[in-house]
# Entry
Amino acid sequence: MSGSTKKSAQKKSNAHQRMVQLLTELAPDEGYNLSLLPDVRFLRSNRALSETPVLYEPGIVVVVQGRKRGFLGGQTYLYDARHYLAVSVPVPFTMETDATEKTPLLAIYFRLDFQLLAEVLVQMDDADLSAHPQTMFATRMDASMSASVLRFLEAMRVPMEARILGRSLVKEIYLRVLTGRQGASMRAALRTDGQYGKVARAIRKIHAAYADKLDVEQLAHEAGMSPPSFHAHFKAVTATSPMQYLKSTRLHQARLLMLRNGLTVAEASARVGYESASQFSREFKRLFDLPPTQEVARMKDAYALPDPEPSALFVSSH
# Structure
C-alpha cells in the first residue's frame, strides 16, 4: 500500500470514528432520540432484531455503526456503515438488525421533507426520463455522502448551528442521494407523472384515510387507472396487493396507537377501521407473530419510540 493510499484510508477511518462518537452522544437512549429538526431522528438499538415487520415512511436511513437488512419482494437490502437506504414511498417489509449492548446499532433517520426535496429537484432541472423508478434501494456511501453526514453530525451537536445550518445540511444530504449511484431511480420515483406517480397518489390516499371503507375501485379512481391496471402497477411498486397494503397500514397504525397512546385492543381496532376486534386480533397476530397486548409489551421493552406526531401523513413503524 502506497503512502498516499495509507493516508487516505486513515483519514476515512478517522472520519468514521468521529461519526460514531458524535452519534453516540446524540443518541444516548435506546430507541429513537429526537433532534432539533422535526424530520430527523437519531437511533440507538442495543439488541438484535429478527424478521420484524416495519413500515417505513419515505426517507433516508444512514447507519453509522451496526447493520440492518430489509426484505421486500424477494430482495435483500443491506444498509450499514458502507451503505445507506433510501425509500421513495412507504412500503411494508421485514427487517433484521445486528446489535449488542457493547456495540449498539447507531443510525440517522431522515424523514423526507417534500418541500425541501422539491427545492433540490427544481434546481437540478432533471431531464433524465429514462431511469427506472425504485421504491427502495441501498447504495454505497461514497466520499461525498460521508463528508456531508459528518458535517451534519458536527452541526447537530451544537444547538445554535443545528438551528441555523440544519436545514441546509439536510438539503446537502438530499443532493448526495439524488445524484448518487441510484439517484436517477430515486428522482424517477418522486416524479408525479407516469404509472409510479399514479400509484403514489393512491398510497397517499390510503395513509390519509386508512380507517375508511376503501376498495380497489376507489383507489384505482384516485390513481386515474382501471382496476386491473392499478392492481398490477400497485403490486409492481409495493410488492403487495392494494388490499394487503391497506390491511398492513391499519395494523401498523393500530400498533402505534396502542404503544404510544395507550389504546386498548378494541379501541385501536375500531380507530383503524375494523368492525370486529376478534378479526383484528387474528390478523394482527398473523402479521406480528404475537397477540396485540404481547406485541405492545415487547415493543415497550425492546424499542422506545418518540411521542406521536399529528402532522405526519404516513404511518411509521420501525
